[in-house]
Amino acid sequence: MGSLDANPAAAYAAFAAAADVDGFHPLNPDDVRSYLHKAVDFVYDYYKSVESLPVLPGVEPGYLHRLLQSAPPSSSAPFDIAMKELKDAVVPGMTHWASPNFFAFFPSTNSAAAIAGELIASAMNTVGFTWQASPAATELEVLALDWLAQLLKLPASFMTRTVAGGRGTGGGVILGTTSEAMLVTLVAARDAALRRSGSAGVAGLTRLTVYAADQTHSTFFKACRLAGFDPANIRSIPTGADTDYALDPAVLLAAMRADADAGLIPTYVCATVGTTSSNAVDPVGAVADVASTFSAWVHVDAAYAGSACICPEFRHHLDGVDRVDSISMSPHKWLMTCLDCTCLYVRDTHRLTGSLETNPEYLKNHASDSGEVTDLKDMQVGVGRRFRGLKLWMVMRTYGATKLQEHIRSDVAMAKMFEEFVRGDDRFEVVVPRNFALVCFRIKPRKFASEEEAERVNRELMERLNKTGKAYVAHTVIGGRFVLRFAVGSSLQEERHVRSAWELIKKTAAEIVGDGEDDRLMMMMRE
Amino acid sequence: MGSLDANPAAAYAAFAAAADVDGFHPLNPDDVRSYLHKAVDFVYDYYKSVESLPVLPGVEPGYLHRLLQSAPPSSSAPFDIAMKELKDAVVPGMTHWASPNFFAFFPSTNSAAAIAGELIASAMNTVGFTWQASPAATELEVLALDWLAQLLKLPASFMTRTVAGGRGTGGGVILGTTSEAMLVTLVAARDAALRRSGSAGVAGLTRLTVYAADQTHSTFFKACRLAGFDPANIRSIPTGADTDYALDPAVLLAAMRADADAGLIPTYVCATVGTTSSNAVDPVGAVADVASTFSAWVHVDAAYAGSACICPEFRHHLDGVDRVDSISMSPHKWLMTCLDCTCLYVRDTHRLTGSLETNPEYLKNHASDSGEVTDLKDMQVGVGRRFRGLKLWMVMRTYGATKLQEHIRSDVAMAKMFEEFVRGDDRFEVVVPRNFALVCFRIKPRKFASEEEAERVNRELMERLNKTGKAYVAHTVIGGRFVLRFAVGSSLQEERHVRSAWELIKKTAAEIVGDGEDDRLMMMMRE
Where does the record locate the signal sequence feature (chains A, B) (predicted)? Predict the structure, then answer.
């Protein structure tokens, strides 16, 4: 960070002399370029060194407040000061999602094209709430969504521009999170069900029911509550090992039937392609068929695994998507597009805009009045919105389908390699089949050991691993079993990182349960 | 954009030779640096030239789809290709919010420090849903919010860290939009009211009522519908010229009293400091006093004008904020922080997290269990979140209170200058008092002219102005009058731009209504 390390006083002095000559110009192009060059240098150094930083920092709550001043500075300072504090105080307390040794949660994949696109978007800083407020921002977002829909082989009914070149009723929007995608479609489905049932206002809300497998992300159940659904009417459908924790359409049907028979109105079903916990895949087509009996809205949450479906060998996981009402997937998870970027597609945009449209005087304009354009504010919670399409378009424009597929396949191959390591060591077991680049595994419990014992051993393994700073793995509980999640795909990751992590896991496990069967038995017996 | 313009074939050839040597590395530090340097050059050139670009582009709906290929590329391309298409096809269709000739809506202010901060955040690409998922990201966000609270002189009850250094119940979170701030507080207020009223589930929802002045942003009424409030129970309180279109506490009291008397439950009041239409300021303290009679939640939307309240001379607009439940303001509007950045403060975070908390197994960790840390996912709609605090912290760290205040004051001074221009020309009138940096004005209607005539003339003025590409002004309707909104503050704006815009307005008005009274009367009579 330049001269500051050597001589902060000098940096301040030079700065003070230069300041205030001609007022305050926060976007002076020379300052912008100078600050950005410093930021680029930081990013370069960060990517070069992140591998050697502890993935999970060993800081205590409140650490940063002890390092940085608690009151805002009253006067200005050279940008180097902020950069120095970033480096000295902030970076040591970061969990490094960009580290190639990050295997927790799902990776937040990224790329040079995405970061560059986001930089330009934040510099242009347009607010594309209506088409007129930034025609190119709206049209590039729509184009990027249509491109992605083509990569995913989504039916033309989800695209703004149909294959024939005309305008269908479908369309998409880029949102910040899957939760928002769920929320806005829940609201559209809710309003449609209320209308269908002849409800006066929201009086009929207590009769509406919603459904998802118990493996569905917790944010779905939260989104239902946000939209005002009655907590008693939010059905979490049990799953089990028999379906590898995917939603069983027969169980769904029984639940919906029972509700309908009781005078309730099945309104919405969420199916997940690649659950957060274990990457289970709900059968999209079968779920859609069940839901159609009740005219319920079907949403597919493919936040993580949707990206894989750009490869022909994974596309079958979306079979039946032509019969659902909406689907969302997040390129910020696995399509090398930095946060945040969740793509929502709906088959009938009017059902969405019918619930979300606003038309204040100060946003009225000829283009909106003409009905020829998409005003993206009417497909999201808020009004304001960044230039969201640019980075996603740049990723597809620069890397093309081939490289994007190569990237998915490379991650899956590394996960497969890890899975084989696990399977090849009889102290470990893979707990559920691997579908994508997530391996759920654990130290195998000894015979007749309780689940509590198995959990204690595996929790110990996880905590020891994470304390090394050389790997970060997260956990889940599947079917009552405490399981480690090994998610491959951080964008700087190479095969050697997966190999090193496995060596570390073996070594750490050996410290806990010994090198082989006998040692392990002895350890267990001593406990 | 480099060699591409001269010889795209050569760029492709060099690129093809370099590719595929060693797999695909989307975050290769050298590529990242190279792409970012190109992006920085673009940004520099853009800021240098944006003044000369038409603010509002003259493109037709669908223009971009005609310029860019409709199918995603199958193979990769040099980054220069994306940059060239950005420059040739996208930029000409942008509405340039960064232009110093942009006077529409509210400015999306920006700064070198903010853009650099956002760049670093998107490169680090952490997902700080829990404290553990990125301790520094969470703590820096909390610190930035506490700093801003101090600049705004918010009561300590809104800060995470109270003045005494202990931990209060208050706290904040950075969200994407004001709408989300409204939504999450509406949901918290809704759930509290349901509990208070002994409602079984959401059965009592039909009795809950919400209130805001008719000048409140339309997104408030949308957020109410998203949260499931009955459309019939969403009260838009009429305002008039007598209060300069601010909420009249007596009218609010009468409306709440009437609802309570009818057995309804007043649940939430939204007060605005600086309405979108005309910058009216609802009296925060008086509104809080009325609402407290009914135990209703009071939220202050200070999206735009909140930033001005860092200056002592504007702080009185927040008087009474110590008695409200929540306040949100958006540094992405007027505090030089690029999109998106909306700061929400609540007095009792537990009321918010009580409605928004989720606790899935895969996110459980010791820090969260200890209750010592803030998990920001529980104060927003979604789970995932960018490293949101960095850019806001960098803005305050680099510019300090003094420069931030200077920036507000400079904008207000320019708006005041414009206001004086308008007042000094008897063909024009200022329609409502100017509170901040927005001037609402129009061509004065001639005596006995209908509002339709006045609207026609002023609409003509707006459309002619915007077609020149040399200024972009938006409109609104206040008290039945069609009015032009002249919002000063785009970050590249200087006094000369305001002067030029006024010259253009005078010249264009003269084309429509003549240079003086006689000409104007004649023009009007001919119509």
Answer: none
Other Cβ atoms within 10 Å of A242 Cβ, number: 8
Examine residue B31 and state whether it is found in any structural domain, yes or no: yes
Chain B CB contacts of A98 below 8 Å: 27, 123-126
Handedness of CA B202, B204, B207, B213 (dihedral sign): negative
Quickly count: other Cβ atoms within 10 Å of residue B148's Cβ. 28
Provide the residue range defining the domain that includes A474. Answer: 402-526
The CATH number linked to B421 is 3.90.1150.10
Q: Choose the catalytic residue: A44, A362, A399, A472.
A: A362
Determine, for residues A32 and B47 on separate chains, whether the beta-carbon distance falls below 8 Å: yes
Q: For residue B375, tell me if it sits in a domain.
A: yes
**CATH code at position A147:** 3.40.640.10
| Residues 204-223 in B contacting A (C-alpha not used; CB under 8 Å) | 205-206, 217-219, 221-223
Say what the ipTM of the complex is: 0.95
CA A298 to chain centre: 20
The answer to whether A403 and A410 have CB atoms below 8 angstroms apart is no
In a domain, B100, yes or no: no
CB contact under 8 Å between A95 and B403, yes or no, is: no
Domain boundary at B50, B78, B93, which? Answer: B93
Contact call for A35 and B94, based on CB within 8 A:
no
One domain for residues B302 and B201: yes
Q: Tokens representing A23? A: 């007022």
B379 and B428 part of one domain: no
Place of tokens 């910058």: B279
CA distance, residue B294 to nearest chain A CA (Å):
22
Distance from CA of B365 to the nearest CA of A (A): 9
- Of B63, B268, B362, B399, the active-site residue reads B362
- Identity of residue A305: A
Domain boundary pick from A340, A362, A387:
A387
Q: Which residues of A touch B477 (CB under 8 A)?
A: 361
Q: Does B450 touch chain A (CB under 8 A)?
A: no
Helix (H, G, I), strand (E, B) or coil at A349: helix
Q: Quick check: is B362 catalytic?
A: yes
Average pLDDT per run of 10 along chain B, which is 527 residues long?
Answer: 45 60 88 98 98 96 94 97 98 98 97 98 96 96 96 93 60 96 98 95 96 96 97 97 97 98 98 97 98 98 98 98 98 97 96 92 88 90 96 98 98 98 97 97 90 95 97 96 97 97 97 70 54
Are B350 and B419 in the same domain?
no
Q: Do A376 and A473 have their domain in common?
A: no
Q: What single-letter DSSP state applies at residue B157?
A: G
pLDDT, one tens digit per residue, over A94-131 is 999 999 999 999 999 999 999 999 999 999 999 999 99
